[in-house]
């Protein structure tokens, strides 16, 4: 699914107040439908974005930056946890590379790798699906990329 209109350079608070409840209701309805059909453990919903936002404001919005929040929903998900390292949300922190732009500590590729393995892709084939995965995940180790799936 693709849904535009999230590029908030201004009016962030009012736009988020309008759009987040729509996402929440849709995800809840999807999750409930999967459970009602007995598919909750077989279906996983994953959100990803190609960019994040800066911590600093440019009037009533923020500029493009790296990093962002992802969410994963499903019966096989070890939920109610933050996976990866949650950054300090203040300007000038160790992960702030300037103007409130945070350098992520967890790659979207790590989430995608865990999902790919869950779907049956072998560790040997992960680089074919995710060419940069070896930068973020030890393909010869025994640990899961992030450990969010049962």
Structure description:
The chain is α+β, with helices and mostly antiparallel strands and 150 residues long. It has a domain at 12-83. Helix content is 27%, strand content 11%. The protein has three helices and four strands. Strands 1-4 form a two-stranded antiparallel sheet. A two-stranded antiparallel ribbon has the order 2-3. The radius of gyration is 17 Å and the shape is globular. The model has no long low-confidence stretch (mean pLDDT 90).
Features:
150 residues; alpha+beta; two-stranded antiparallel ribbon; 3 helices; globular
In N-to-C order, the SSE pattern is HEEEEHH
What is the number of E strands?
Answer: 4
Question: Helix proportion of residues, in percent?
Answer: 25-40%
What overall geometry do the principal axes of the alpha carbons give? globular
The rounded distance between the terminal residues' Cα atoms is 25 Å
What are the low-pLDDT stretches, counting only 5+ consecutive residues below 50? none
Number of DSSP helices?
3
Determine the mean pLDDT.
90
Give a brief outline of the structure.
The chain is of the alpha+beta class and about 150 residues long. The chain contains three helices and four strands, in the order αββββαα.
Topology of helices and strands:
Layout: H1 12-36, E1 44-46, E2 52-57, E3 62-65, E4 72-74, H2 108-118, H3 126-129
Antiparallel strand pairs: 1-4, 2-3
